[in-house]
Amino acid sequence: MALYRVLLVDDEEEIREGIIRKIDWEGLGYTIVGDAENGLEALEKAEHLHPDVVMTDIKMPFMDGLELGEKLQTSMPSTKLIIFSGFDDFEYAQKAIKLNVAEYVLKPINSAELIETLKKLKLRLDQEFDEKRDVEILRRNYMDSLPVMREQFLVGLLEGRVSNARLAAQAERFDINLNAESWAVALVRADAAPKADAALNGEEELIPISLKCTVDEILGNYCTFTDFLYSDCVVMIAELEPKNGIVALMNGVNEICKSAERVLGVRVTAGVGTVCSVLSEIRHSYREAQNALDYSASLGAGKAIYIGDVEPDPSVKLQFDEHDEREIINAIKMGSEEEIRNRITALFTRFESMLLPLSQYQIYLMEIMTSLLKAIRSYELGAEEIFGETFNYVTTIVSFHSPAEMMHWCIESCLKISTLIKRERVDSTKLLAQNAKRYISENYQNAELSVETLCSFLHVSPAYFSTVFKRETGMSFVAYLTEVRLQEAVNLLNSTDDKTYVIAEKVGYTEPNYFSYVFKKKFGVSPSKYRNNA
Predict the structure, then answer these.
(1) How many CA atoms lie within 13 A of 456 on its CB side?
(2) Which of 494, 485, 476, 477 is nearest to 518 (CA)?
(3) pTM
(4) Sign of the CA dihedral 35, 36, 39, 41?
(5) Where do the DSSP E strands lie in 156-200?
(6) How confident is the model at residue 196 (pLDDT cuts 50, 70, 90)?
(7) Mind listing the pLDDT tens digit for each residue in 209-230?
(8) Is the backbone peptide bond immediately before 108 cis, with ω within 30 degrees of 0?
(9) What are the angstrom distances between the C-alpha of 246 and each of 179, 183, 238?
(10) How far apart are CA 118 and CA 82, in angstroms?
(11) Reading across the β-sheet that carries 53-57, which strands appear in turn?
């Protein structure tokens, strides 16, 4: 097992060196990865060194051990804290307990006592790491989560959020049969409260569970299926055989409606979508089943409604649905030129075998164009820059005489939008960094200036800002702010007779000693010596 990483923090160098020298760290299973003389320096080093253990004195300048512990508990909650203190004070111990400190050691530090503390802590760390690595525990957690994960996967399949590749890779894991001849979706929901004398009267929250039990009990006699609760419905994904097809599913769902009303005292309606031969296209059957449910208002509840009976031959349609829109917009925002071409080509070629009138393709193109215009508006792009100054929604659509012309127009338009969005993204990050620099240059004197204050002004999250600022400037926010403050301090030292404590306050440091510490760390000499040398 790798050695546990230790960061040692104490404002007395002799104590740090003594602890490092007197302990056989490797023999105990540790390695010292760094040391610091105050909490601020320790916090900065911890971000880069990622220690498993931080051993710190309580009383230190600039940031004490308890404050350091609070910061670490937020940013690195798994890091263990050992507190050193020369104060046998209940209040300190109480605060340490609240911080979930691993050990609290009184000064002067006894090496034998410290060794025992480290041994005890190593056993605790070993146990925690073993638990994290325990395959059996992970497997048990995985198996416990599998039903929920399977249901989420099926919901994604119904909503068109599962790609063919992901379906093929995860079907076996979620016990999904890809070898059936065809599939269809049926939805069952309770349309009214239970009857006054029904068993579930007054306990309506149990209706969906009871309805699912009815489905489980009955539908297996008619077909193989998977069912789960989603929204206010029981969703059934049925595997259909060529011999009986949709008829068997309709018979089963009708029986469920009758049984639910008779046994549960609940009026039930069901909607059934058309058959699809590819499971990845099941979202169309799901949407049709939802549409079929809407007809219960006119056709009456208490029975199964097949979309094919009320909307004849719904498959012979060009449908640009939410899944298609999401795919094309993602390709425009994040994809390469090849991915965009392939995505648009796929939208059109899947209908090549259908002998459809041009008017249907025009409606299809109108739906695609609407999605593109929404994307353009959301990124505040100019439509004329993409489609030309004479662009007209209607005349553009009717100007095409074949699906191939429409496809070519879509590809070229999407490529232009993608180029502008990516350029806008680059420009916006540069502008963000420039605005941040300007804000820092105008507010570095404020000792309370922080990344949170700056992000509140810029209306961005600290995580996003930190990534962008580091990429654009090559420095973190703290490093850049320190650089600005110290350069201004140098200017003041060279051009004024102000005392160093006055200069410290002018550049945003309320603590003169910490200003001197940071200045010396940067330039190798104290502010006073710097001025004398100059």
Answers:
(1) 5
(2) 485
(3) 0.48
(4) negative
(5) 182-190
(6) low
(7) 888 999 999 999 999 999 999 9
(8) yes
(9) 17, 9, 9
(10) 9
(11) 30-36, 4-9, 53-57, 80-85, 103-106
Contact 488, 507 (CB under 8 A): yes
State whether residue 452 is helix, strand or coil: helix
How is 86-155 classified by DSSP, letter by letter? S---HHHHHHHHHTT-SEEEESSPPHHHHHHHHHHHHHHHHHHHHHHH-HHHHHHHHHHHHHHHHHHHHH
Whose tokens are 């490529």? That residue is 415
Mean pLDDT of 71-85: 86
Confirm if 436 and 475 have CB atoms less than 8 A apart.
no
Contacts of 305 (CB under 8 A, 6+ apart): 269, 270, 271, 272, 292, 293, 295, 296, 299
163-195 confidence digits (pLDDT tens): 888 898 888 888 888 888 899 999 998 876 666
Q: How many residues does the chain have?
A: 534
Neighbouring C-alpha atoms within 13 Å toward the C-beta of 15: 18
- Comparing CA positions, the residue from 479, 491, 492 lying closest to residue 518 is 479
**Phi-psi map region of 446: left, alpha, beta (phi>0 left; psi -120 to 50 alpha):** beta
Contact 425, 415 (CB under 8 A): no
Helix (H, G, I), strand (E, B) or coil at 318: coil
Q: What's at 370, amino acid-wise? A: T
What is the torsional sign of CA 8, 10, 13, 18? Answer: negative
Give the span between the Cα atoms of 112 and 126, in whole angstroms: 21
Please give the single-letter amino acid code of residue 155.
Answer: V
Secondary structure (3-state) at 6: strand
Half-sphere exposure of 237 (CA within 13 A, CB side): 27
Helix (H, G, I), strand (E, B), or coil: what is residue 1? coil
